[in-house]
Design brief:
By secondary structure, the protein is an alpha+beta fold. The protein has 9 helices and 11 strands. A hairpin with a 2-residue loop joins strand 10 and strand 11. Helix 1 packs parallel to helix 6 and helix 6 packs antiparallel against helix 9. The N terminus is likely disordered. Pfam families: cNMP_binding, HTH_Crp_2.
Length: 254
Amino acid sequence: MDKKSFVADKIVWLDSRRPASRRASKTKQDQSAQAAESHDQSSSGRDLFDLLFDNCLADKVPAGRHLFLQEDRSDRVFGLIEGSVEISIYSIDGQKLVANMQTAPTIIGEVGALDGNLRTATAICRTDCQIVSLERAQLLKRIEESPLLARSMLRLLCDRFRWVSESLGDQAFLGVEARLAKRLLLLDKLLADPTGWIAISQSEIAEFLGATRESVNKLLNGWRSRTLIDIRRGHIKVANRARLRRLVTDGNDA
């Protein structure tokens, strides 16, 4: 595998120190601008989640703990009940790309658990989390026994493939400013607290975007002066969603 050829903004579901499981008529551009808010890539549906993890007991996993590591053996699928998890890819020389932020409820690591190949990314808890999990053999058994679960898993994989395709298209056709605006709208939906603040550093945003911290910092400071966003240490708040959506639209038009 040539790890140096990773493409930014791909989504993958890439274990080492995993928690022990007990038992367990808008234009296309306008539509793209709003996709960051309307597209829920973090949830595959409550029904699927309940079907898959029926009778599994939750583990409490602290922030900073890995669910799995890139290139480890895939022997388990995880369900996120509470908290958020970062999915990251690392190049052979240690460069990091944040591929996705997953929020509860969602399924994590299903691709590796389904095909049995090595993990293609690292999953780490951004916050304290509640996690359920199934061994690969249990996952396959439940799928074989439940046509509804099998169809739901196919739907999940299709949804995530569409997300990957959209992300690759953004990387190829949108400039940094439009991609940053789209990512902030997504983070606002997924991670903002009740007052609107998102706990994320500018370095993390740069890693999520596949851009340099300097370019992200310059754009964010410019947006703050135009009252599109507000910034405090380790946090950012979206102040004008409509103007950010327009930046995405303008990026598509470019």
